[in-house]
Amino acid sequence: GGLSGTGTATITISDVNDHPPIFTQRSYTALVTEDLEVNSEVLVVSATDGDEGENAVVTFSIVGGDEDRKFFVETDKLNRRGIIKLKKGVDFEKPHERTFNLTLKAEDADFFSLAYCLVQVEDSNDHAPVFFPQFYESPAMSEDVPVGTIVTQVTASDLDSGQNAHFSYSISKESDPYNQFLVDQSGWVVVAHPLDREKIAHHRIMVLATDAGTPPLTGTAIVMVTVLDVNDNGPEFEAPYKPVVWENTAAPQVVRMNETSLLLHATDRDTSTNGGPFSIRLLMLTSEATNFNLTDFRNGSAAITTLRTFDRERQKEYRLPILMIDGGFPPMSSTNTLTVVI
């Protein structure tokens, strides 16, 4: 008969690329803030492929919904992942950059599949409130205007949204050290405490608008207020005089006011309109005043002379009431006491 034999044959089946890559999700969503830095990660997507080796190598790309090229994809071939990153900054304040509907593509050498990604952009507090205009000049006002008088109204706006767009007004303490002004939440700046031109004649108020974002941002505006004088101050001595008379010296003796002047000088803290010319008089209210004479030179100065000889051992000083009246309307007066030392 015939002969027979047996043997083993190993058949190796080679893979062919007959499976498309499939995203693990049909759709994705991502939420980013508008202050996300360029090259930051937005989202990671992944895909599977039933093939092996080179046939299972998947590449990811964006093929739709990104006309301004705000995003790009890095492919992690080893893990079949696509890392979507920010290529250019996004701006929530631009309506067309608040939402992106991206079409994603996963492909191998022969096949591909698509998935969709909705990227939503959140507002961040990247805009400070802005005043328009940023400089205000109020009509000049008298220093005696009543509390509550309106100075001006300021207006600000904020390009952010939600809480980031809410702001409140206030006045910088440094620009209003005496708290003479306040601003309400409608932007009305008003007089809060009586004005005093002799204290501050020109106010440069800094109004702040601070938003409710994190961290809060602040915008500023300047309000200029010029305060007009009213005659609210009487005349006063120009200096703290210490007049001296020598005893046992025959009259008339000129009373020296201080080391540098024989004359008494009047001054007024109001403006020149409400200042001189001054009227200076010696009031004969006490017997002490009858020992002296005052000559008013009608130029803001006066001389005082003695009418008799003095003895220090009997009386060391004399108090003279001096009435001074300014040239304002209506005129203001004041009485100052001049103490003459013998």
TrEMBL record:
Every Cadherin domain range: 24-131, 141-237, 237-342
Keyword Transcription regulation: no
UniProt keyword annotations, A-Z: Calcium, Cell adhesion, Disulfide bond, EGF-like domain, Glycoprotein, Membrane, Repeat, Signal, Transmembrane, Transmembrane helix
An individual GO BP term: homophilic cell adhesion via plasma membrane adhesion molecules
Entry keyword Disulfide bond: yes
Superkingdom as given in the UniProt entry: Eukaryota
Gene Ontology, cellular component aspect: adherens junction; catenin complex
Gene Ontology MF terms: beta-catenin binding; cadherin binding; calcium ion binding
PANTHER family xref list: CADHERIN-23, EGF-LIKE DOMAIN-CONTAINING PROTEIN
Native species: Nothobranchius korthausae
Gene3D superfamilies with a match to the protein in the record: Cadherins
Annotated signal sequence range: none
Protein name: Cadherin domain-containing protein
InterPro entries, A to Z: Cadherin, Cadherin-like_dom, Cadherin-like_sf, Cadherin_CS
Origin organism lineage: Eukaryota, Metazoa, Chordata, Craniata, Vertebrata
Subcellular location: Membrane
Pfam families registered for this protein in UniProt: Cadherin
